[in-house]
Specification:
heterotrimer, B: Rossmann fold, 12 helices, globular, C: alpha/beta, Rossmann fold, seven-stranded mixed sheet, five-stranded mixed sheet, 14 strands
């Protein structure tokens, strides 16, 4: 049997050795205990003895070569044998590839993640969404920082189910045709597979309507109201609906009305415009409210958990009518902004709200709300309090009216405007509310007074 | 050379016992040499701490023990466990990491154990076996048997706190433990005279108030006598004893250690006192051994080892998942309860 | 049902097991009468069983814990007391390298039926070297079982089981729990390892707690109930083997998890629970998982500083409240 002579492991840390000297040659007989070669490690030169008897058949590594531990150095055969041609050595005759460690990377300072970078959706929310085939990124989050939580997903699923139910399925051709005809698909019966509405269904329905309209239909004197169109409560509509209901049912709402002379307000705005500053009445009113709230902190409060919380910051929300419904973007720290700054903030917020790309912070966190229906002709109204706030100021349209302007009962025509302050009597009483409103009135009538406060 | 045979054959050991000791020492020497060879060939993993030169100590000691006595050993424990009765077959199987090894390949050289023969195990922690042997002695005393426990350790372990705690408790509790110190002068590369200041270990042990002896560790009969005295003392309820055996390892601390810290003259001097050669000469002089018997014994031992290597190499390699077994009696490595069959 | 102290429950367990099995014996510092151990758990046992079976030792943790190992592997069933868990460092080799591994290294030949009883925890101004909670060290050593009972009922049942098991057990008591009382039935009973106990049912948040933190968590749950928050308190009782299934089931119900223990936060047992839950109950977690633990500092001496680092019901309640309100 051939046997292999390999580079021995002569130390715990030895990885390779230099074969400094062969003490035998090919063809030599070796016996156990006889020195056959010398190895140099980093520590010493060691003589290596033969362990078995035999003849050196072939020497594979020459003197002076450094090889890794385990490398085949020589092959020997037992007495009287020769090396079979097909014999293969077990030990490697070539050095195995050395381990190449990658060069250490220079550590680059990593960009600091923003505070809200993580956990935009909880694990449960992601899992539920994934299971339902929804992308959690399309779901509005009600958790802290706008995080999507499980409840948001289940609600989205419920509304999607509701929507799916109410929206009839139609082929795209049918849908296009119906849209061009101005035909409501929910009124069309589908004859296609699974009740799908087809093009011919749409044509048939259109034809039926034309026929119907051709015949004057008697107006029923009584009978059930006919649902022409049903819009499901989803998204903004649903939120508004719920919030209004909660507010109406839980607040002790009282509304105070004051009619103010808006001459000073009009004048002030014109001065801004003439200087090229695009300031609206609302901008000035926001500033006036902010200053007044600073002076009357009882109106900048909210109902907490068994306690009334007086708030240190003044964030004023502005009710805005958008395609998506009623939104209330919030101008933060309005008391610390100048009127032009308020104008810029207001403009950006409303644009974002209308376009649908408000940031989560834009629409929450207000401490007071201003709602102006003047451009729609409304003179006075009783706005619903925007919980958890305790006051909301409604602004009506300016009407040019004759009014008494001095003690001598002189009459003049002035633009008069009704301010409607609705307040939650649980949180603030009538007198302080009235005092707050009085200050607002003062500042509206004499806006220069704003220059007398810090 | 005449000194060693002047006294004539020992009266306290039969010829058979002496031949048995001789053969066992040769078996240990051959085992260590074989292990070294195969380790250098890359067939054995990990470390090997070999004991060529020290054979007289475990063999002399274990000749004084019964099969049901206990021993604890060290990282350099092959000689100890073979002397106590381990079969070289299963030892090589363990060194080769096979399931047929004593520890199913889980322990390796430093943890070889055979609890059926009272071999509590080699131990990878210097002085680790000392407190354990005290517990074994305590257990013997509490169970009321006449077993004894031998604790093998090196002189390096006497620097560890555990050595002192174990001897103190053994003495306090008067338990049947014999502390056998194999003083081979080096703890890895650190010499004895730099481990303890001008220390005679028998004096140190005597401060724990137990009989202490110092004996020539290159003389198997002398070791036997010292340990036998201590064993009888313990079996009779006399409490612990300490035996220091002065010996020497012919190799470095581990296979591959060039042992540059061991001066050549010192090595040569100790080689001249080789315990196996000495006992061989004595046995021949006393008429217990002939040249033919000696040669035959050499051949037998080589054959036994060759068969052991063959057994090891042809034994099955454990399935890798066996790494997860044998952690606890009642639970697996994840904490799931184990049902009856898996519990040994 | 009668109410007895945690201390007496442990004492009963030791006594009953020593009567039941003559191989059971005790070892430790100052455990014999008249002192009867630092927290008086063994008081009264040495007059009954003798000082050979209630074996009082010198101050040699490495020595007597190692002796416990040796005795356990040769047929006895020792229950060794380490006066303070802080002293375990003196015996760490015998616990970690010997007791935990002898069975494994010997390929299953040996078993080590050793129980090491000890106590830890802050609350007595014992300061840095006498008030630690080190259970995480043992949790991390394969081969050791770890138990941490919080009530007298759990203490007695688990200690009896620990003594009867054939594996090495770290049985970790708490210095402030010894005087607490609780219902313990007369008569024989044991409690299994690897089975958690739901100490209080709830629906809004799961609180997993060990040892003294169980007591604090239950108080926190009471406080929160008055605010309309329903807390479920799960006591694992044994850290290894760990009954993760009970915790998973609880989290499936509540979707929120707070893990609390007295040990410092970093690398503690809570981290193990959180990691397992993040894997096994991922789809049920609706809010960031919280740990309420001591800050990663040693226990300080001054009472007010010690109070500051200690886990209490207010800290647990505050965290649960924030979680349930969606503020985290």
């Amino acid at each position: 049997m051939p046997f292999e002579i390999t580079m021995p492991q002569l130390g715990l840390t030895m990885e390779s050795g230099v074969l400094v000297k062969w003490c035998v040659q090919e063809g030599d007989r070796i016996a156990p205990g006889e020195q056959i070669f010398e190895v140099e490690t980093d520590k010493a030169t060691v003589a290596v003895e033969a362990h078995e008897e035999g003849t050196i058949e072939r020497i594979l590594v020459s003197e002076g070569q450094e090889v890794p531990v385990g490398t085949l150095l020589a092959i020997a055969v037992a007495a009287g044998e020769t090396l079979p041609t097909a014999w293969q050595p077990v030990h490697p005759s070539v050095a195995p590839a050395p381990v190449l460690w990658p060069a250490p990377q220079v550590a680059l300072p990593s960009a600091k993640p923003s505070a809200d970078a993580g956990l935009q959706a909880s694990w449960k929310a992601r899992t539920l969404a994934h299971q339902a085939g929804l992308d959690w990124r399309t779901i509005a989050g009600s958790g802290p920082g706008g995080r999507v939580v499980a409840e948001d997903v289940t609600q989205a699923l419920a509304s999607a189910a509701a929507v799916a139910k109410s929206e009839p399925k139609a082929t795209s051709v049918a849908a296009k045709l119906a849209a061009s005809l101005g035909l409501d698909l929910s009124a069309v019966v589908g004859s296609g597979p699974q009740g799908r509405i087809t093009q011919s269904d749409v044509l048939e329905a259109a034809a039926a309507i034309i026929r119907e309209r051709a015949v004057p239909r008697p107006v029923p004197m009584s009978g059930p109201a006919q649902v022409l169109n049903a819009v499901p409560l989803t998204g903004v509509r649903q939120v508004v609906s719920e919030r209004m209901a909660v507010s109406a049912h839980s607040t002790a709402r009282v509304t105070l009305f004051r009619e103010v002379d808006a001459t000073g307000l009009v004048d002030l705005r014109e001065r801004f415009i003439s200087r090229g500053l695009q300031v609206s009445y609302n901008d000035i009113l926001v500033k006036i409210c902010a200053v007044s709230l600073r002076e009357h902190p009882e109106a900048n409060a909210r109902m907490g958990d068994g306690q009334i919380e007086y708030l240190g910051r003044i964030h004023i929300g502005l009710a805005v009518d958008t395609d998506r419904g009623l939104l209330v973007p919030v101008i933060r720290n309005a008391d610390l902004l100048t009127v032009p700054q308020i104008a810029v903030a207001r403009s950006r917020l409303i644009e974002a709200a209308r376009a649908g790309y408000s940031l989560p912070d834009d629409l929450t966190g207000g401490t007071f709300t201003l709602t102006n229906l003047g451009m729609l002709g409304v003179e006075g109204f009783t706005p619903v309090i925007n919980l958890p706030e305790c006051c909301i100021l409604g602004v009506g349209r300016m009407v040019r009216k004759p009014v008494v302007v001095d003690e001598s009962d002189t009459l003049a025509v002035r633009p008069m405007m009704i301010l409607s302050l609705a307040f939650d009597h649980r949180v603030i009483d009538g007198a302080p509310a009235a005092r707050f409103l009085e200050r607002v009135v003062q500042l509206v009538q004499d806006p220069w007074l704003l220059l007398t406060v810090n | 050379m005449n000194d060693e045979i002047r006294e004539g054959p020992p009266q306290d050991l039969t010829g058979e016992q002496l031949l048995g000791m001789y053969r066992r020492m040769r078996l240990i020497r051959a085992f260590e040499n074989t292990a070294q060879r195969h380790f250098e060939a890359g067939e054995i993993a990990g470390f090997l701490h070999l004991s060529q030169g020290q054979e007289a100590v475990p063999v002399g000691t274990c000749t004084a023990l019964r099969r049901d006595d206990y021993i604890t050993s060290t990282h350099r424990g092959h000689g100890d466990v073979i002397a106590k009765g381990c079969d070289v077959k299963y030892m090589f199987a363990e060194l080769y990491g096979r399931t047929s090894g004593y520890c199913k390949g889980k322990g390796g050289s430093m943890h070889i154990a055979d609890f059926s023969q009272g071999i509590i195990g080699a131990n990878g922690i210097v002085s680790g076996g000392l407190p354990i042997s005290t517990g074994v002695g305590l257990s013997i005393k509490m169970r009321g048997t006449d077993q004894v426990a031998v604790c093998f350790f090196g002189e390096g372990a006497t620097a560890e706190g555990g050595f002192h705690e174990a001897l103190n408790l053994a003495s306090l509790w008067q338990i049947p433990v014999i502390f056998v110190c194999q003083n081979n002068l080096y703890a890895l590369s650190h010499p004895w005279d730099k481990t303890a200041y001008q220390c005679e270990l028998e004096h140190r042990a005597a401060t724990y108030h137990m009989p202490a002896d110092c004996v020539d560790g290159m003389d198997a009969v002398a070791v036997y006598r010292a340990v036998r005295k201590a064993v009888d003392h313990a079996r009779a309820g006399g409490g612990p004893s300490f035996v220091e055996a002065k010996t020497y390892r012919f190799l470095g601390h581990y296979v591959g250690d060039p042992a540059l810290y061991m001066p050549a003259e010192e090595r040569q001097a100790w080689h001249k006192r080789d315990a196996i050669l000495k006992l061989g000469r004595q046995l021949r002089a006393w008429g217990y051994l002939t040249e033919e018997k000696d040669a035959q014994m050499a051949t037998d031992v080589e054959a036994e080892l060759a068969a052991a290597i063959e057994f090891a190499k042809s034994s099955p390699i454990p399935a890798p998942e066996e790494a997860l077994d044998d952690l606890c009696v009642h639970f697996d490595y994840l904490g799931h309860p184990l049902q009856g069959e898996k519990r040994s | 049902m009668r109410e007895i102290t945690y201390r007496d429950a442990l004492k009963e367990a030791l006594r009953e097991e020593m009567i039941r099995d003559e191989r059971v014996f005790l070892m430790g510092e100052d455990i014999a009468d008249p002192f009867g151990s630092a927290y008086k758990v063994t008081l009264g046992l040495s007059p009954e069983f003798g000082t050979d079976r209630v074996l009082q030792t010198p101050i040699s943790e490495q020595g007597f814990v190692g002796a416990g190992v040796g005795a356990a592997i040769t047929g006895m069933r020792p229950v060794v007391e380490l006066m303070y868990i802080d002293f375990v460092t003196m015996a760490m080799d015998q616990i970690a390298n010997q007791a935990a591994k002898i069975r494994y290294m010997s390929g299953g030949q040996a078993k080590v039926p050793l129980v090491i009883r000890t106590q830890g925890g802050p609350g007595r101004s014992s300061a840095a070297q006498h008030a630690q909670s080190l259970e995480a060290w043992f949790l991390h050593i394969p081969g050791l079982l770890v138990a941490m009972p919080s009530t007298p009922y759990d203490a007695k049942g688990l200690l009896k089981t620990a003594i009867r098991l054939d594996d090495p057990v770290m049985f970790i008591e708490q210095k402030l729990l010894y005087n607490t009382t609780g219902p313990v039935p007369e008569g024989e009973y044991t409690l299994p390892f690897g089975v958690a106990d739901v100490k209080r049912e709830g629906t809004d948040c799961t609180v997993v707690a060990t040892s003294m933190a169980v007591v604090k968590a239950l108080r926190a749950a009471e406080l929160l109930e008055q605010e309309g928050i329903s807390v479920e308190v799960v006591d694992p009782r044994t850290l290894f083997p760990l009954d993760i299934d009970t915790i998973v089931q609880s989290v499936q119900k509540t979707s929120r998890l707070v893990v609390t223990h007295e040990a410092p936060e970093r690398g503690g047992f809570a981290a193990e629970v959180v990691a397992q839950i993040a894997d096994k109950a991922f789809g049920y977690i609706d809010a960031p998982i919280q740990r309420v633990c001591a800050p990663s500092v040693p226990p300080p001496f001054a009472r007010n500083m010690e109070d500051f680092i200690m886990v209490d019901e207010k800290k647990i309640a505050d965290r649960v409240r924030k979680l349930v309100r969606g503020e985290i």
